[in-house]
Every structure is written in C-alpha cells, then in structure tokens.
Amino acid sequence: MSRRSGILEFAVLGLLREAPMHGYELRKRLNTSLGVFRAFSYGSLYPCLKTLVQQGWIAEEHASDAVEPLTAQLTGRRAKIVYRITAEGKERFEELLAQTGPDTWEDEHFGVRFAFFGQTTRDVRMRVLEGRRSRLEERLDKMRASLNRTRERLDDYTLELQRHGMESVEREVRWLNELIESERAGRDQRDRRNGRDLKDATGRRDEAGDRRTEDTGGLPRHRGSTRPDPSEDTT
C-alpha cells in the first residue's frame, strides 16, 4: 500500500468514526476538512472504500432515505450506500492513531494526523510534533545552504521565490514551537495540580493521624468511653 493510499485509509476511518457517511459526504469532508485531499477524486476514494470493506474495517448499509425499488426502476436512481466503521475498524484506527514514526512527520501525513490530534494522547502528540519540527529544521538547513551556494547565480525573482519558501518553513517551525510549549505547559500544570492534590491528601491523612495520636495515644477510641486510667486498675 502506497503512502498516499495509507493516509487516505487513516482519514476515512477517522471520519467514519465520527459518524456514518455516504461517499459524497466523505469526499466533501476530505476536501474541506483535510485539504491535502483536494486533488482526490471518486476514482481514488471508492477503491479505498472497497478495500476497507473487504478488510472488515467498514460496512456498507442502505441509507434510511433510500428510494423504493419500484421508484428506482422507473427513475434509474439507486439507493445511497452509507458507510459505517466496524469494531475492527475502530481498533485499526486506534493502531494507526498511535503511530509516531517518520511517515507521520511528512507534509501530507502530518496535516491529516494533526486534524485528529484531539483523539490522541499527549505523548503521541509530542512525538509527532517534535518529529515534524526536526524534519523541518533539517529542510531549513538544506535550503539555507543551497541559497548561499547559488545566490549569485540566481535572478531576483528566483531568489525571492526561494526566500518565500524559507519563510514559510520558518513560520511553521515557530508554530510548532508554540504547540510544543503549549503541550509541555499543559503537562506541567497537570503535574503541579496532581502534586497539590497529593500533598493535600497527605496533609489530611497526617492531620487525621495527629488527632488520633493526641486523643487516643495512637489506639482507637472505644465509642462512648474514655481512656482507662491506670490508677483505677484493681487487678
């Protein structure tokens, strides 16, 4: 399976996890929500859907507004097929969602992965974001080196185009830095909050222990009685 068909599989499963859809709705969502698929056609989408059905990851169903069989024969209209994700498909999507390897840092893969970040863990998000930043920093170094070597041989327009490309990469690196810092700040805030909760819980336990030690000498008090006075022992 090619990289492009693999990311299409991921996107289709992710969208169907949100709600069942028919082919037109899927294509529209792929084009509008996940811009990397603007060039995709029905000729690309339906082979993917067919493969997912064969794998058992999605299932076909007739739409509830399907036309009657007799009406379909007279008008030539076919009932819409609605696709829904199966339990196996959800497991497959979770497996793909947890991947953080180099493929997830590439241009078209990263955009789609980012669209589903709300369904991932913080650790997965951090690995993908840091990997993407590393990849872009490598690209930026190569672009700068190439520009320094060829600057004198380039006309003004070509030089401006290369500068524009570098600025685009630099903007994305700054954006990634902000996202990474935000993720780290969220983790630190959560850790501090958890630390305070643990400290408060420990303090409450200690306070309860101090009261118990002060009142009963560390022994449980018998309800409705006072501590025995050793001087009253007549045995």
UniProtKB/TrEMBL annotation:
The keyword 4Fe-4S does not apply. SUPFAM superfamilies: Winged helix' DNA-binding domain. Pfam families: PadR. Residues 12-95 form the Transcription regulator PadR N-terminal domain. Residues 185-235 are annotated as: Disordered. Residues 185-215 have a biased composition (Basic and acidic residues). Residues 126-167 form a coiled coil. Keywords: Coiled coil. This is PadR family transcriptional regulator.
